## 1
Amino acid sequence: MNPRKTLQLILQGSRNIRFADFVGLVQAFGFRLARTRGSHHIFARRGIPELVNLQNVAGQAKPYQVDQFLKLVEQHGLTLQDR
C-alpha cells in the first residue's frame, strides 16, 4: 500500500495495519533497517537519536508501536519523503 494511504488510515484511527505497509511508511519517513534480532526489526535515521523497534505479529503491526512512531514523527517534525 502507498505510504500516504497507510498514514491516512492510521490517522483515521485504524488499529489494523499490515506490518509490511507500516515498514513501508517508516522507510518513507527516512528510516532504514539497521538490524533484525528475532522478531524485532530495528530502524534508524541519521540525526534522530531514537531507534524505531517494530515487531511483526501475525502480519500486523503492534498498535502501541504505531503510536510510538507517530509521536516520534511529531516530536522531530518529520515529513514523508517522495521516492
## 2
Amino acid sequence: MSKVHGRAETEEVLSPPRLETFPTAVMLTISCATFLVITAEMLPAGVLRLISADLGVTKSQAGYLMSGYAFTVVATCVPLTHLTRFVDRTRLLRIVVACYVVGALLNAIAPTYSLVMATRIFTGIFHGLFWSVISAYPAYLVTPRLIPKAVTYSSVGGSAAFIAGVPLATYMGQVLGWRVSQGLIGLLLLALLLVMYRKLPLVGVSAPKPTTKLSREEKKQQRKLERVSRQTALERSGRRPLILIPRTSLAAALGLCLTVALYVIGQYTAYSYISEIITAQMGIDSKYISLVLFGSGLVGFIGSVLSGRVFERFGNRALVAMTFTVALALSLLALVGTVTWVGIILVLLWSLAGAFVPSFFVMRMLVVTPSKVRDVIGAVYNASFNLGIGGGALIGGLLLAAFDIERVIISASVLAWVASLVTLLLGILVVRSERFLATE
C-alpha cells in the first residue's frame, strides 16, 4: 500500500491492492450497502397499492416510479462514471451513499406524486454510480481467485434485500405507512455511511495514468500485422466464425451487456408488478403479500449463497441454464399460476433461478472485460441493467393498464426466452472464436 499525496494521514489507498486474504469486514459492509440500496429501489413494487391510494394515482402510474428511477440511471451512469474515473472508488461510494440518504428522506416526506417522482429521479442519478463502483469493486480489492467469493458477498446482500428488506419494508408500509418505511431506510443508510468511513479502504486510481499514443503509421502497421495474423489463422483452421469475439475483449463485454438488458426487461416486466401477480393471478389475499415475498426472498438468498461455487464449477453454462429456468417458470406461471399452490411453487422457482443470474452476470463481466475498460464496462453494464428495470416496469405498466396481469406475465416470459437464446448463442460464438484464435 502506498500513501497518496494530499490525503488524510489515517487513510491509505490500494491501487490495485490484490489482497491475498479475504477482507470479510469490508465485504460485509458492501453487502449491507447492496441490501439497503436494493430495498429502497424495490420498495414501490411491494407497496404499489399503498402509494397509489396515498398519492391518488393509478397502479400503473405508481409502477412508473420504478421506470423513472431506472431510466435516470440509464441516462446518467455512463457519463458520471467517466467523469469520476479518477476518484478513489471508496470515496466515490461514500459520496453516493450520502446522496442516497438525502433522496430517501426527501422521498418519505414528498407530498405529491410529482415530488415523489422527483426524489426518485434524484436518487437514480447516484444509483448508477453506486452499481458501477460495486460491480468492479472486487477486482480492485482482491486477487482474481477470490473474485467469485467477493461477488457472492455483494450478491448475498442483494438477495437478503428480497428475503428480508423488501418483505419487511412492505409489511411496515402496510402497518405504519409506506412513508415511514421509506424514512427508516434512509436512517439505516445514514448509519451505514458512518460504518463505511471506518471499514472501507481507499481503492482505485487517484490520477490519470500516462498513455502512449501510436502514430498514424504505427497504427497502420499494427492493423496490417493483425490482418496477416488472421489470414494465417484462417489458412490453418480452414473455418472462420462470421464474427470474432475473444473471451476477454470489449466485444464480449458489450455482448454480455446486451444480454443483461434483454433478460432484465423480461424479469422486471413481471417483477415490478409482483404484488398484482400474487393477488390477481394467484388469488392470494393482499395481507399475505409480504409472506410470499419472504418465501421468494428466502430461496433467492440460498441461490445467491451458492452462486460463487456454482459459477466456479460450471461458468457460462450455469448462466444459460438459469436464464432458461426463469423463462420456463414465467411461462408456466402464466399458464397454470391461477392454481394458488402451483403459483407459489413457480414463484419460488422463479426467485431461486433469478437469484443466480445477476451474480453470474457480474462474475462473467469481470472475467470477459479487459482491465483497462473495467470501470467503463461496469457503467455500461449498470446502464443495461437499469434500462431493463425501467423498460420492464414501463412495458408491464402499459400492458396492465390495457389488459390484465396474465398478459403481463406472458409478455415477460417471451422476453425472458429471447434473452436466454441470446445468452446461449453468444456463449457458443465466444467458444468458436477462441478455438479459431488458438490456431494463430
## 3
Amino acid sequence: MDIRCRRTSCKHNAGHTCFAGFLDVNSHAVCKTFERDKEKKREELDLTKNMFETTPNYENFRHIKNLSLKCNTTKCLFNNDGKCRANGITVVDDHEKSRCASFIEDI
C-alpha cells in the first residue's frame, strides 16, 4: 500500500509520503494522525492538483508492512473489519481537515 499525503505541514510528512508509525482514519474519513509541525510554515505547493503536468519530488515508496492503519469509516468500500484494503491512500487538505481522499462510499 502506498501512503501519500498532501498535508505537507504535518510532522509525519516527508516529500508527500507519510512516515507515521500508526495511521488512524475516523468515521468521517479524517486522518486523526495529522500533527502540525511548527517548523513548517505552510503547505508546500501541491503540483498534483494540476493533473500531473509536473509532479512534486516524492520520497521513495514506503514499504509499510509495519504500519498500523486503522479505519473507522465503516461505509467505505475499502474497509475490511477496521483495516484498509486499498492499494494506496492519499490524504488531502479539506478545509483545514486532513481527509482520506481514497474514501469510496460502499452502497
## 4
Amino acid sequence: METPLIKVGVMAGEEIFFTIEGNYHLEHSPYNFTGECSARKSEMGIILQCGSEKWEDTEGFKLIPSNPETGKFILHDVTIGINFHWERKEDQVFKGSLFFLLESGNLHAINALSVEDYLMSVISSEMSATSSMALLKAHAVISRSWLLAQIQKNQSLQTEHQTYHTTFRTDDELIRWYDREDHTCFDVCADDHCQRYQGITRATTPVVERAVRETSGEILAFNGLICDARFSKCCGGVTEVFENVWEPVNHPYLQKMVDNYLNPEGFSLDLHHEDSARQWILGNPEAFCNSSDKNVLGQVLNDYDQETNDFYRWKVVYSQQELTELVKNRTGIDFGMVINLVPVERGVSGRLMKLKIIGTNKTMTIGKELEIRKTLSKTHLYSSAFIVEKQAVEDGCNFILYGAGWGHGVGLCQIGAAVMGDKGYGYDEILYHYFRGAKLERRY
C-alpha cells in the first residue's frame, strides 16, 4: 500500500488571501503562479487573482507545486482555536497542493498532501515538539489511526448512501454530538474539531521527524480494523467510553480506564452515580494526568494551551443573571431566569451526558457532553465532568461548577501520556495503557 494522500480543510471565507513561495501551476494548465494572490466568491463560482492576472471558474482551482520539496504557500489570517478561549488569527505556512472549492455556499481553502507530511505538522501542532520520543511516537500512531479510520468511515457512508444524523430534538430534550458530518469536500479540518493542523508554521524538529518516520504506516488495530483512536488533553483521572460522547457505537478499545496502574484508594469508581461523581470531582486522586510539573506540561502544551493551568480540577462561578444570559445566548432558547441545573445522566468517567436546565419559562434537557460544554461557556467549558452547587446571595444565587479534566476524555490522555513518557514508558506501553485490546500493525 502506498502512502495515502489526504485533503485538509484549512479555512473558509468570502475572500481568502495567500502568498505563494516558489512556483505553482494550475492543474492541467501551463499557468504559473508566485507571490501575492487571492481567491473570492463570484456569481459564477470562484475568481482567482495573482498580480494582474485573473481567472474565473464554476467548480474551483487546484494549484500544484512545480517542486514539491521546495514549494510552499502562506494562508493569511487563519483562525485557530475556533470557539475556544484562546481563539486568534495567524498566518500559516503549508507545503503540498492548494485547492479552492465551493461547498454549501462557502469558499474553502484545502491543503492536499501525504499522510506522513500531515502528521509532521499535527504532532508539532497538537503539542510541543520538545515532547518525549515515546509520547511523539504514540501520538503519531493515534493521529494516523484516527485519520485513516475517518476516511474509511466517510467512504462507507458515501458508498452505502447513509444519512448521518447527529441531532435528536423534542420539545423538552436536545441531544446532539459533534463529529465530522460537516466535512464532505475534504477529509479532515485543521482545527481542534478534528486534529490541530497548522502546516509547517509549527516548525518540526529532528525528534518529531524521527518519531513519524520510525512509525511510518503504523496504526492501532482491533480485530483487523483500524482503530478510531481518540484523544483529549486531560481525562481527569478516568477515561470515558466512545458512545457516551459520539454516536451509539461501542468500540471495545475505547472503554473506561483509570489513568493509573492502581485504583486510587478511598474513592468509589461508580462515577455514573451522583455521590461517587461528587466525591471524585471534589477529590484529588492520584493519576498520571494529575501533574503540575512545568517541564512535563511544557512538553505537551503549546504556549496558548499553557494559558490554562487548572485542567485537572477547576472551578467556574456564574451569577444567576450571568448564567441566564449565557444559556439564552448560547442556545437561542428563552428559559426565563435559570433557577437550577440538574444532572440527569453521567457517563463512566463522571462526565455529564444529559443535564436538565430549569428556568422560569422553560425546562429542557440537553446533551451530549460537548453540547453541555458549549451551553455553559462563552467558548467551551473545560469538560462536562462537573457538579453544581448553588450559593445564596442577596439578589438571587450563584452557580458554582466544580469540574475535572479538559476535553471529552475518550482514548489517550495527552497529559497522562506525557507523564508516562517522562517516567520512561515506551510508546507501545502508553498506547496499550489507553487502548486496551488494540494491537500495533504496520499498513504501509
